[in-house]
Automatic annotation (TrEMBL):
Signal peptide location: 1-24
Record keywords: Hydrolase, Signal
Pfam families in UniProt: Peptidase_S9
Name this protein carries in UniProt: S9 family peptidase
């Protein structure tokens, strides 16, 4: 989302395709051939209530075994007007409606008779069944078995044709489409000389696109319009010291506007309405903090606008481009500061405490109030508006998850929509016209809200760039003109991939050993029964992030090779509220790792995963979780891949990038203090316990990584080699925190697949 459409979580409900082969989690109920226990001990010939049947169906036909909220959402899709939680006996008419919807085979059914007919045709009910018949517990077991067998229909357990690593990991095509301020041109990233560069094309024109950048060493990381210029961002070999470059409209001139060695630049404001100038933050004077500069994109002239005293973690400009908000922080507690003019001193505006977050989005058009995302004095992040006295009005909140994104339109000074993630991406609308546009596009493209995203729009809200993506769709971009009602396809990412061979990504939930609800995703290989599969658990990075439903090339690659892939939003993950994130404080290698282990055990208990063929693979914090997994649960994993992962928390904290200095206290609070928590950090740093590792290990690292230094990988590799253990080690001298260059990505994933196949098949 662009044009101040802020989506904080990475970064995408029709009838859900439900999984197969799921056995019940004992914390909910158990179903087997000999005994059907619903709630308490129920006789096989006893009638079954509506609620008992639905709860049993949820256990058998979905992977939502731990989340009350997600189960309720699914029940709403299944039951329609049927009373949820009812203790009345369920009829075969009700059952037919539930199962037809649950299995995604609903077409034009309107009456119970229609649903009964569909259920009989698909073999869910016997042909002589009557709509008003009740069912016994024994019959329920048989009916649910029929539903499971229907879902297995057509699976011959041979998998699908193998897709090459290159096809999954090469540059996917054109992406990052953005509209010029007048809406007449679009820019986008496309491949040139094996690197992603920026191109410009006139809309509704026949002219060939013009390439406006010429990067051969690194992909262009991002680009944006300023007037008739393209500005773009690039680092050097993965060092994350991003500079801002300019390119003229015809691509004849490129210029580094911030040519300072070792300096990192961030965009603060595009200064819409101000010609030729933008606001940027740079750590040029002090590498630990960002000062504010006004940059003339034509001359390169810098004007020092605001000096950082050493504790300002963020800035916000008003609609006139004046810096009037600063976020003061010691890394734990923070204060939002405000000033009336740039000549005035900043004064406290809103005070937060540990765990609180107030993130300003934009000033209102009259500069008299501020839109923000906030969890101050509550658990979930909500969309709020603050007056200049700090008084707050809540515009939207979700009882179960954080609000993660906002569409703000500066021209009309309107919040158009908000976004949040539960199982998938969902929206709440505040503008009726915008909502109608969104719904019409959903209908025309035949997609769900979770698959549709508004990427960019002009200030008149008449021209839009939209995208469609899903778990099996990398992304297709469209240009839409509301005046002509013309929808033009721009491109389809990775169009060479056969979508029919890609794997379904199922939202899951389970209960941790200490009672927390853990959400995640299970991707099952296509045309394979979900029984005794080799499984790769893939912990996400951060750990203050989360996995979301959508296309993931590495997950699809693993599934294509026959692996089930488990992604776990363990405690400390974001999006589920303050308490859930804080539950991971100082739990690296402890309860966080237990959540991952519990997820693996859940998959084993369901019969999905072969306990002798479990692998673990993760990057960054996921790399740490990989090393912790094979260190502290060495018998669980048969193979492990650590990608830019942490092995020694002491050296991690000692080598954080200088511009993270304002977050140091927060790291101490969430990870541990190197002196006060010395014993804890020694206990959970894998490098000090390398003698416990016996799992085959493959390590990959970028030499220029500023977050997880090369020494993190060097240490664990050296410690294991001292014990005579051979570790595969891939080091790339021209990469940083993850491999960006196409040839390096392809080499890494070839090696990873070969490694897992060697040890898990």
């Amino acid at each position: 989302m662009k044009k101040q459409a802020l989506l904080a979580v990475m970064a995408s409900a029709l009838i859900v395709t439900y999984p197969i082969g799921a056995q019940a989690n004992d914390s909910i109920r158990t179903i087997d051939r000999e005994t059907v226990r619903v709630a308490e001990n129920v006789k096989a010939e006893a009638p079954v209530s509506v609620d008992d049947f639905i709860q049993s169906a949820l256990d058998v036909l979905t992977y939502q075994h731990g989340s009350k909220e997600m189960r309720e959402e699914i029940v709403k899709r299944w039951t329609g007007d049927t009373e949820v939680g009812s203790t009345k006996d369920i009829t075969k008419g009700d059952i037919s409606k539930v199962l037809v919807r649950a299995l995604g085979i609903e077409e034009k059914e309107e009456t119970i008779s229609d649903y009964m007919q569909s259920a009989k045709i698909h073999g869910l009910l016997k042909v002589y069944s009557q709509a008003d018949e009740t069912v016994t517990a024994e019959e329920m077991e048989s009916i649910l078995e029929n539903a499971k067998q229907y879902m297995l229909k057509g699976i011959d357990n041979k998998g699908v044709s193998e897709i090459s690593v290159e096809d999954f990991m090469k540059n996917p095509g054109d992406f990052g489409f953005e509209m010029s301020p007048d809406g007449e041109y679009i820019s986008y990233s496309s491949e040139w000389e094996n690197r992603m560069n920026v191109f410009v094309k006139k809309m509704n024109g026949e002219d060939e696109p013009i390439r406006v950048t010429s990067s051969k060493d690194r992909d262009i990381a991002a680009s944006f319009w300023k007037g008739d210029h393209i500005l773009y961002v690039k680092d050097n070999g993965g060092d994350e010291n991003y500079h801002i470059y300019s390119s003229s409209f015809n691509g004849q001139e490129e210029r580094d506007l911030t040519p300072y060695d070792g300096v990192r630049v961030q965009l603060i404001s595009n200064l819409t309405g101000v010609e030729d100038e933008i606001l940027i933050g740079m750590n040029k004077e002090d590498p630990t903090v960002y000062d504010v500069y006004r940059l003339n994109i034509k001359t390169g002239e810098l004007d020092h606008v605001a000096k950082n005293p050493g504790n300002i973690a963020g800035w916000l400009a008003d609609h006139e481009g004046k810096i009037r908000i600063a976020i003061e922080s010691d890394g734990v507690d923070s204060t939002i500061l405000y000033r009336e003019t740039e000549e005035d001193e900043f004064k406290p505006f809103v005070q937060t405490e540990a765990g609180d977050m107030v993130s300003p989005i934009a000033f209102s058009k009259d500069n008299k109030s501020i839109y923000a995302l906030s969890n101050k004095e509550r658990d979930k992040i909500e969309l709020v508006v603050l007056d200049l006295e700090g008084n707050e009005k809540v515009l939207y909140s979700n009882p179960h998850v954080d609000v993660t994104g906002v569409f703000y339109h500066s021209t009309t000074d309107a919040i158009l929509a908000g976004a949040y993630f539960t199982d998938k991406l969902h929206y709440v609308f505040f503008d009726e016209k915008f909502e109608n546009l969104f719904n019409n596009l959903m209908d025309e493209l035949n997609v769900s809200e979770s698959e549709l995203s508004i990427e960019d729009y002009n200030k008149e809200l008449t021209k839009f760039i939209i995208s469609v993506s899903s778990d099996k769709e990398y992304g297709t971009y469209y240009y839409y003109d509301t005046e002509t009602e013309e929808l033009t396809k721009l491109t389809e990412l990775a169009s060479w991939l056969d979508r029919e061979t890609l794997a379904d990504m199922h939202p899951i939930s389970y209960t941790s050993r200490d009672g927390l609800t853990i959400h995640g995703y299970l991707t099952l290989p296509k045309n394979k029964k979900p029984e005794q599969l080799p499984l790769i658990v893939n912990p996400h990075g951060g750990p203050w992030a989360r996995d979301v439903w959508g296309y993931n090339p590495e997950v699809q690659l693993l599934a294509n090779r026959g692996y089930a892939v488990l992604q776990v939003n363990f405690r400390s993950s974001t999006g589920y509220g303050k308490a859930f994130t804080d539950a991971g404080n100082k739990q690296w290698g402890l309860k966080i790792q237990d959540d991952i282990t519990d997820g693996v055990q859940w998959a084993i208990d369901q019969g999905i995963a072969d306990p002798d063929r479990i692998g673990i693979y993760g990057a960054s914090f996921g790399g740490y979780a990989t090393l912790a997994g094979i260190t502290f649960t060495p018998d669980l994993y048969a193979a492990a891949v650590d990608y830019v992962g942490v092995s020694n928390i002491f050296t991690l904290l000692d080598t954080i990038p200088p511009y993270w200095e304002t977050m140091r206290n927060d790291l101490y609070k969430r990870v541990g203090h190197p002196e006060e928590d010395k014993e804890l950090l020694e206990a959970v740093s894998p490098v000090f316990h390398a003698d416990k590792i016996k799992t085959p290990l493959f390590v990959a690292q970028g030499a220029n990584d500023p977050r997880v230094n090369k020494a993190e990988s060097d240490q664990i590799v050296e410690a294991l080699k001292k014990r005579g253990i051979d570790v595969e080690y891939m080091l790339k001298e021209n990469e940083g925190h993850g491999f960006q260059n196409e040839e390096n990505r392809i080499e890494f994933y070839h090696a990873m697949i070969e490694f897992f196949d060697k040890h898990l098949k």
